[in-house]
Amino acid sequence: METTKFIESFAEALEIEDASKISVETEFRKLDEWDSLGYLNIIAMLDEKYGIQIENVQFKQLITIEDLIRYIDDATK
Predict the structure, then answer these.
(1) Which residues contact 3 (CB under 8 A, 6 or more apart)?
(2) Structural domains of the chain in order of their starting residue, each with its CATH number
(3) Which end of the chain is more exposed for a tag (fewer CB within 10 A), N or C?
(4) Separation of alpha carbons 1 and 65, rounded Å
(5) Global pTM?
């Protein structure tokens, strides 16, 4: 998966105007834009763009953007 495209999609889902403030090391739950609606938007984005449905228990284990990317890569193999 292309990291830049994922970060752009992630930023769009959270309505972050400047995606450049996000990197693979970003702990997404620490972003100002992160809240329960943001969580739902990310879950919907994962389903729509990548066909991935993730359980809350699994999602809680993901900390960084890189963790999300790895999860998607593993789930789509």
Answers:
(1) 24, 69
(2) 3-75 (1.10.1200.10)
(3) C
(4) 13
(5) 0.91
